[in-house]
Design brief:
Helices cover 38% and strands 28% of the residues. The chain is α+β, with helices and mostly antiparallel strands. Strands 6, 7, 8, 9 and 10 form a 5-stranded antiparallel β-sheet that branches. A 4-stranded antiparallel β-sheet has the order 1-29-28-27, with no helix packed on it. Helix 6 packs antiparallel against helix 8.
């Protein structure tokens, strides 16, 4: 039954309006559904983005830890089966082979007859070896003469192709003791200006011959000088090796002795001796001539350095070692670049290693029976094994040999270092520089910068939020909260600029005063609070709002200014007039103007607004009824804050701490500009540091795409991602537990 029409107050019949729900339900439903879809899509997009970033970082870094791929290639019919040494053109266009008859032939790797055929003479090559770095062969003839034959690779570009033409340079000859034909171990290196040969003669003497040639730049006249030195040879020396600078001579014996002589103008000095612990069956120098690789009869390998243990004392130390690969090591072939080397065993097995990372990159069979010579290309991307039937080519894919977990996160014994150390040095003065890619100094620098930033930011941010939300007059809050939050809009580059160019030099001159201000500041704040509490309530009510804030600010700034003015007096009283000199004389450390304290102060300005905003919001969201109830029961204002408000707001306070931690961990520009940006391994506040994020910003413009440094930087980004993700995950767990624990308070 229809209801009667509704009458208005004046008696007129009013038209019936439909229910409100019938008019608004459908549009509101569509709006609610659309909002839900947008929110859900946004959440899913955030998760997908995080997963995509993680996957991308993992994909970019995973090749670092892959081993080398070695695959058999072409079989080359080079030589007559008596090849004694091999040398490869750097671009893999030609292969040079020196046989036992003293014939040097250069074959194109694409196939064909030799493009160069040179006879060294001297009745053949009783022993020979190839020097990859210098592109030369060294052969000991049957007549007792050492011949050094350099090769030259002339490269011509034209018609969209590259043409490499091999040629033989002028040979260098160094005659050992006249009439001496029974020569044991030998070694030689030579340049047009200086050539050196060393050998163990039949009378157990070690003889050294040096030929020096000088050319008059005006007349072109050539002057030659030859010197001979001899010394007793240690018993059983079977291998010798000369460094590229011809200043050091290394030797090894079948009994396991390792020796090093220093070559001076007046003869041989030494030797330094070390015991390898196993008979030595092969010896070679890595690129640069500072690392000596020894192969042993048990199939193991060791890498040795010559270190200065004092001004006049040197010693040989075993820096790296590798487990046995099988049979005794017959031959070693170092790469002309990097610290990779190839080892051939008596059983025909090959092993590819990297000395710095102590990484076994690959092991496998050579495929050549009775292999006699071995060569590794300059770039380490191909290997050649010579046997009775020819030469076998091996294709090597080994993009990142210098990276391993021990090289990234462990102590590594680098060349010329007195002991194993954590070092980051991505580039060196030459290609011979040893890669130093330890992430430990960068991780420690990140932690160091974060701790110093939080040391200043957390007390100011948390206690400032407590006072602002719980004790400050609301009329003053309207000015203080926006002023602090505006600090968050300051660009990091501006803070870094001010810290590096303005704060750092001034802090160096007034550092004692700065220390005094940091120590006296909390006491002045307490004194200001006590002074305000002592003001009679009647007088306090008459004063304008914010008077207590002005008193505290005046006390803090006045105390800081007084400490700065007294800085010279404090320096004379406690540090003997100069703090930096006192620090250097007392601790042995210098004072770097751009140090961790400067960076910590600057980073604190970036972290405080975030910590303050989140903490203040959490404290303000605690129901006022809880505070009122506590005060009504007789608790003081401080007891109410400490036992009621802080526990109820603890999840938000912990979130403020963790978000401030994440902000400090990821800071880049302030660290770049306010510190020395040096990857040092210490927690001293007076030294600079380098963080993972700053290192990425510094190194990535110079890192070739896909190279080792490029991928290590992505690994640094992955570590930062993992640290922040773990910190946020821990924060969520702790927050949830705190929320459950204090849920009853709200």
């Amino acid at each position: 039954m229809e209801s009667a029409p509704r009458l208005d107050p004046f008696g007129a019949t009013a038209p019936r309006s439909p229910p409100i729900a019938a008019v608004t339900a459908r549009p509101r439903l569509w709006v609610d559904r659309g909002a839900a879809v947008v929110v859900r899509a946004g959440g899913i997009l955030v998760i997908v983005s995080l997963v995509a970033i993680l996957v991308f970082l993992v994909v970019e870094t995973s090749p670092l830890f892959r081993g080398a791929d070695v695959a058999p290639g072409r079989a080359l019919a080079a030589g007559d089966g008596s090849i004694a040494a091999l040398l490869v053109e750097p671009r893999l266009s030609h292969l040079a082979a020196l046989d036992a008859d003293g014939h040097l032939r250069v074959y194109p790797l694409g196939g064909g007859s030799p493009e160069l055929d040179v006879t060294l003479g001297g009745g053949g090559a009783r022993a020979a070896r190839a020097m990859t770095e210098e592109a030369e062969f060294v052969a000991l003839g049957a007549d007792g003469v050492v011949r050094i034959q350099p090769l030259e690779w002339k490269v011509v570009y034209g018609d969209d192709r590259r043409t490499v033409t091999p040629s033989a340079g002028a040979p260098l000859e160094l005659a050992l003791q006249p009439g001496e034909r029974s020569v044991g171990a030998f070694a030689a290196r030579g340049t047009p200006a200086l050539a050196t040969a060393a050998a163990v003669l039949s009378d157990a003497t070690l003889q050294l011959v040096r030929a020096r040639t000088q050319v008059n730049e005006f007349s072109g006249e050539r002057t030659s000088e030859e010197k001979r030195f001899s010394a007793p040879a240690p018993e059983g020396v079977a291998f010798l090796a000369l460094d590229p600078e011809q200043k050091l001579l290394y030797g090894a014996s079948a009994a396991g002795g390792i020796y090093a002589w220093e070559i001076r103008d007046d003869g041989l000095h030494g030797p330094d001796r070390a015991d390898a612990g196993a008979p030595v069956t092969a010896l070679a120098l890595l690129v640069g001539g500072r690392s000596l690789v020894a192969g042993h009869a048990d199939g193991s390998l060791s890498v040795w350095f010559r270190l200065h243990a004092g001004r006049a004392h040197t010693e040989l130390v075993r820096a790296h070692s590798f487990d046995s690969q099988g049979g005794a090591i017959r031959a070693l072939a170092p790469s002309g670049r990097g610290r990779s080397f190839l080892a051939l065993g008596e059983d025909g097995r090959l092993g590819l290693y990297h000395s710095t990372s102590e990484r076994v990159l690959w092991r496998g069979a050579s495929g050549t029976a009775d292999a006699r010579a071995l060569a590794l290309s300059l770039r380490g991307d191909a290997a050649f094994v010579a046997g009775p039937t020819g030469v076998e080519e091996l294709t090597v894919r080994n993009p990142h040999p210098e990276v391993s977990l021990s090289a990234l996160f462990g102590r590594v014994w680098y060349e010329d270092y007195p002991e194993p150390a954590y070092v980051w040095q991505s580039t060196g003065g030459s290609e011979e520089a040893e890669p130093k890619l330890s992430l430990v100094p960068l991780a420690l620098g990140t932690l160091k910068g974060t701790l110093y930033a939080l040391f200043f930011a957390l007390p100011l941010g948390i206690f400032g939020a407590i006072y602002t939300s719980q004790a400050m007059d609301p009329r003053v809050q309207r000015w203080v909260k926006p002023a602090v939050e505006i600090m968050a809009s300051l660009p990091s580059v501006v803070l870094g600029f001010l810290a590096g160019l303005w704060l750092a030099p001034r802090l160096e001159h007034v550092f004692p005063g700065f220390l005094a201000a940091v120590a006296v500041g909390p006491l002045l704040a307490l004194a200001a609070g006590a002074s305000w509490a002592a003001v009679p309530p009647r007088l306090a009510k008459r004063l304008p709002p914010g008077t207590e804030v002005a008193i505290a600010a005046l006390a803090l700034f006045g105390g800081a200014a007084l400490c700065i003015e007294l800085s010279p007096f404090l320096a004379r009283t406690f540090f003997g007039s100069d703090f930096s000199g006192w620090l250097r004389d007392t601790t042995g450390q210098g004072y770097d103007p751009r140090n961790a304290l400067v960076a910590g102060v600057a980073m604190a300005f970036a972290v405080i607004p975030i910590v303050f905003a989140i903490a203040e919001e959490s404290l303000s969201n605690v129901p006022r009824t809880l505070s009122a109830a506590s005060l009504a029961l007789g608790a003081s204002r401080w007891q109410t804050i400490a036992r009621v408000v802080l526990p109820a707001a603890s999840p938000g306070l912990f979130a403020a701490l963790m978000i401030g931690f994440g902000r400090a961990v990821g800071e880049t520009m302030i660290v770049l500009m306010a510190t020395g940006n040096t990857p040092l391994l210490d927690f001293s506040p007076f030294n600079g540091f380098r963080t993972l994020s700053a290192n990425i910003a510094v190194e990535i413009p110079e890192a070739p795409q896909g190279a080792t440094l490029y991928r290590v930087l992505f690994l640094s980004a992955l570590l930062l991602f993992a640290v922040t993700f773990a910190a946020n995950g821990l924060a969520d767990v702790v927050r949830e537990r705190l929320r459950r624990r204090y849920a009853g308070l709200a």
